[in-house]
Structure formats: C-alpha cells, structure tokens
Design a protein that fits this description.
The chain is an alpha+beta fold. It contains 2 helices and 8 strands; from the N terminus they run βββαβββββα. A hairpin with a 4-residue loop joins strand 2 and strand 3.
Length: 153
C-alpha cells in the first residue's frame, strides 16, 4: 500500500491509498474504494487509517511470554497499542494481534501480567518438583533392583 502520486487524479470522497490488484497475468493499481473520514486529516478509510496514524498512543498492554527459558523473560514487557477489542488489539505498527495465543498473553495492567507470570512460575516449579520426586522414586527402584541382583551372584 502506498499513497497516490500527485500526477494521478483522485476521488475526493474515497480513501487516498493506492491499492494493488493482481490478476492472472497483470497488475493494476487503483484508489481504495472505501469512504474517507479516518486517520490524519480524515484522508483514509477506517482500515488504512490504522497504518497511517502517526499519533502517539495512550493505550498500553503488558506482554507476558508464555514460553521463556531465561529468568529475564519472566518479567512482563510494556506494549504501545492503538486500539483494543474483546479478543484482539492493534499494536503501534498497525498489526492486529490476539490478546492470548500459545506464545504470548497480553494484560491491561502490569499487576495482572505480574500475577499471571507468578502463577506460571509457581506452576513450573510444582511440575519440576513432581518430576524430580518421580525420578527419585525411579532411581530408588533401580538401586533396590541392583542390590538384589548383586546378592544373587
């Protein structure tokens, strides 16, 4: 997507973004068909205004990485956001993202993100302790079996 060049006539009621349509063997450029009224100076449609809005955002979310291997990754990270809906948000670059996926989760307050990170860390510690306990039981069984085998020689 790019803005229309000055030498091309534009429809003043439509979005100023030049769209690309690729057919079977050709490519054509045309002005976006949507009505203007959004973004800087009201030049863009609602969809393209997200990409061209240069205003600083007041909205923030807190990102918590779901899969981290370093202790430093456990702390939440601040993310600038343009718009938030029930399940998605639009980041500062205009990309639409889910509030929760298998890799990351985003929270509205830092306290919520820290609480979720704490819960995740305690769950990991509990799983590790459970795994260690099972490993010790297995090791005890192996040692016991080895000692009985040594006695049968």
């Amino acid at each position: 997507m790019k803005s229309l060049k000055d030498d091309q006539p534009t429809n003043p009621t439509r979005c100023v973004v030049e769209c690309v349509h690729s057919g079977h063997r050709s490519v054509s450029f045309h002005q976006c068909f949507a009505k203007r009224g959004f973004g800087p100076k009201g030049q863009y449609c609602k969809r393209h205004a997200r990409r061209h809005d240069d205003a600083p955002s007041e909205l923030t979310l807190w990102k918590r990485s779901a899969n981290f291997y370093d202790v430093g990754d456990a702390l939440p990270e601040r993310v600038a956001v343009r718009e938030i809906t029930a399940k998605t948000f639009i980041d500062a670059n205009g990309n639409r993202c889910k509030l929760k996926d298998r890799y990351n989760a985003y929270y509205r307050t830092e306290r919520d993100a820290l609480t979720a990170a704490y819960d995740n860390m305690t769950r990991r510690i509990a799983n590790a302790e459970r795994s260690l306990k099972l490993s010790r039981i297995g090791l005890e069984r192996i040692v016991k079996r080895l000692t009985t085998l040594k006695g049968k020689r």
